[in-house]
Amino acid sequence: MVVEVSLASLHTDEVRRDPYPFYAELHRHGPVCRVAPGDRYSYVVHGYEASAAVLRDSATFKVMDSTLLGAKPTWEGNRAHAVFMNSVFFTNAPRHTRMRKMFNQAFTPRRVNALEPAIDRMTADLLDRLAEQAAGGAKVDFMSEFAFPLPANVLGELLGVPEADRAWYRPRALALGAILELGGTTPDNVAAANTAAEEITGYFADLAAARRKDPRDDLVTALVQALEADGSQLSEEELLANLIVVFNAGFVTTTHLLGNGLTLLLERPDELARLRGDLSLAPRYVEEILRYEVPTHFSVRWCAQDTEVAGVPIPAGCWVLVLLAAANRDPAVFASPDLFDPDRAETSTLSFGGGAHYCLGAALARLEGQRGLAMLLERFGAAIRLAEPPGTPRQLMLRGHEQLWLHLSD
Ligand code: HEM
After folding, report:
1. Alpha-carbon distance 305 to 316, whole Å?
2. From CA 112, how far away is CA 152, in angstroms rounded?
3. Are 43 and 301 in contact (CB under 8 A)?
4. What is the number of the ligand 1 atom nearest to the C-alpha of 365?
5. Burial class (CB in 10 A: 0-12, 13-18, 19+), 392
6. CA-to-CA distance for 402 and 111, rounded, in angstroms?
7. Ligand 1 pocket, 357 CB below 6 A?
8. CB-ligand 1 contact for 253 (6 Å cutoff)
9. Which amino acid residue places its CA nearest to atom 19 of ligand 1?
């Protein structure tokens, strides 16, 4: 029997602050539920195996793309839309396969591994600055002084965005990301996102032109060269759109991995002390942080043909909400799912999605999380304390703290 549920409470402040009891309730109704009429989504998939199956079957479950929008999108005056719809996030095969191939060629494991010394150097620089600011017992905001600049600098290094331009980028990236939130397409948000998209597109167009003239060892150069070698693979508009979404997808997510991770550790002094005593455990801790409080709670798919998931028939033509964060707490897979336990045997989560749209930056995000948190604990040790209670995040997409005030010296 298929249970029908309402997703209305996902829009309430109470559930936004702590959605996990709601997810636990969904699990009690099986891995897939029908959504009560009136919602944009017809089904919610939250069981781990069911969610993984939906993500893997990209022929049946497609991401939203420009052909699915019904009415023809009016690109002019709607730059944010155009950016998203020209990127890997919102395209399906064969267009997606073509774009993704291009990115996989340029964004290689070699390029990610080669970033490790740069990540360590940037982390050390940021920690020096934090130490200066925190001297004499002053409180510092971990988010703006570390969790934001580290991934922004790493992506800047990877793509070739000069350091001086990264602060300019932040508010624009946040404005662009805001419309991806559940219920985030308010007129004000859309207007701000359009302006941001216009400005960022101009920025990357200039950067790509500069790299064509003067190649460097960065991802933008690798992509413009690959584009020239095989011009049919990616249009200029697609190139720019993908540079923007890679930059956006890559830093706000990782910012929140660092902020959520540190908060979880500060709330669990025994875990913090254990990790500090053995930094080789950082990969385990980061996996558990990603499972327990992932910044990306959901993905959306459109069902292209009549099918069945976990025995529940899903008709063609409906929208499906895949709750990755709920799948990560599926009691059928994770024993005591609401317990933060870095030693758990089952560590394979859906935090980075799965199938054709599996996160391009998973390896990079893990590396930044591991090095960032380990070096922070090594540097400040037992002196790290919360200066103010951490606020409670309310987002489901890009979930994390706006500020996290710390003391770092006695
Ligand atoms: C903790 C950090 C991160 C998390 C939790 C995360 C999560 C995700 C998830 C869940 C998806 C799949 C979306 C879907 O199936 O609808 C995804 C896709 C993607 N991620 Fe990440 N991500 C993170 C970091 C990064 C980084 C560092 C980069 C870039 C350097 C990046 C770039 C991308 C891109 C380009 C896609 C789209 C891939 C495609 O559609 O083919 N992400 N990410």
Report:
1. 4
2. 15
3. no
4. 27
5. exposed
6. 30
7. yes
8. yes
9. 359
Q: How many CB atoms lie within 10 A of CB 145?
A: 18
Q: 110-137 pLDDT, tens per residue?
A: 889 999 999 999 999 999 999 999 999 9
Secondary structure of residue 207 in the 3-state scheme: helix
Which helix (H) or strand (E) segment holds residue 399: the answer is: none
Amino acid at 187: P
Instruction: For 167-215, write each residue's pLDDT tens digit.
Output: 888 788 888 888 877 777 888 998 999 999 999 999 999 999 999 999 9
Q: What domain range includes position 159?
A: 4-407
**Which of 360, 364, 395, 397, when mutated, tests ligand 1's pocket best, judged by the most ligand atoms within 8 Å of its CB?**
360
Q: Is the CB of 215 under 6 A from ligand 1?
A: no
250 lines ligand 1 (CB under 6 A): yes
The amino acid present at 148, given as its one-letter code, is F
CA 91 to ligand 1: nearest atom: 40
Tally the residues of the chain: 410
Number of domains in the chain: 1
Cα separation, 406 vs 410, in Å, equals 11
pLDDT in tens, 149-170: 999 899 888 888 888 888 888 7
Query: Cβ(293)–Cβ(392) under 8 Å?
Result: no
Looking at the DSSP assignment, which residues form a beta bridge with residue 44? 33, 321
CATH of the domain at 64: 1.10.630.10
**C-beta 102 within 6 A of ligand 1:** no
